[in-house]
Amino acid sequence: MASVLRTDALTKRYGALLVTDAVSLDIGEGELHAIIGPNGAGKTTLINQLSGELAADSGSVWFKGRDVSALPIHERARLGLLRSYQITSIFEDFSVLENATFSALASRQHAFKFWAPMLASKESRRVAEESLEATGLTHRLHAAAGDLGYGERRQLELAMSLSAQPQFLLLDEPMAGMSVQESTAVVALLQRLKRRYTILLVEHDMDAVFALADRISVLVYGKILFTGTPDEIRNHPEVRAVYLGEEEAEAAA
Ligand SMILES: Nc1ncnc2c1ncn2[C@@H]1O[C@H](COP(=O)(O)OP(=O)(O)OP(=O)(O)O)[C@@H](O)[C@H]1O
């Protein structure tokens, strides 16, 4: 599997607190790689360094063979390394389709044509419709974004990310705050998106992680304790002891 995203000894401190401790990851094309770890382990901080929101103190981030460590968030996004829920904001008064179309237009740097008849750009509309179909929102195309329920809103955010046509998706807790039914729908959605996109998923929902991930990295106090397949993670004694706990490990088995 060709490497798409690689970090080399990425390190971040907040004062005396070492939040990212020489993290080296190598994620292959089409892989769904999950990061798990207890609260405060440094998962969000790590994603922030990958997206470019946060500069590392030392170490580097490589995307498609290029050192992107010094690039800001929008330039990484332009290269196809995109963090969902962060790049775009939802316009409440606009329809689901208009929001996704705007995202498609914006990613092509035509943002200021927004006030011209937005749906005139056939290509952007096609991309938007495809993204909304992939995220299961086709039946809500003309609903105002402000009228969406919580789960649908997260689906729209994901559709807007897909409309930007990323190659790599950074997903930070996409199931957070969702009902069981909504999480199940997102798991099914990510199953469909898998392979088409390379995905790094930070998620507390272990059922979702074990159902989706090709490989899982366990982060503890900013350090990667172990990287392996879901089976290897389930059977790793240190991981069971430190993070999963016997009970959850049983549930995941
Ligand atoms: N801007 C900051 N300044 C100081 N400390 C910070 C800052 N951001 C995060 N931290 C600390 O860094 C550590 C890692 O935080 P982070 O949010 O990355 O963990 P996490 O694994 O995503 O946690 P959770 O699972 O609860 O979302 C925590 O101890 C947190 O308090």
From TrEMBL:
In which domain of life is the source organism classified?
A: Bacteria
Q: Which key words are in the record? A: ATP-binding, Cell membrane, Membrane, Nucleotide-binding, Transport
Domain ABC transporter as annotated: residue spans: 5-246
Q: Which GO terms describe its molecular function?
A: ATP binding
**CDD domains assigned:** ABC_Mj1267_LivG_branched
Q: Which PANTHER family match?
A: ABC TRANSPORTER ATP-BINDING PROTEIN, CONSERVED COMPONENT OF ABC TRANSPORTER FOR NATURAL AMINO ACIDS-RELATED
This protein is called what? Branched-chain amino acid transport system ATP-binding protein
**What organism is recorded for this protein?**
Rhodoferax saidenbachensis
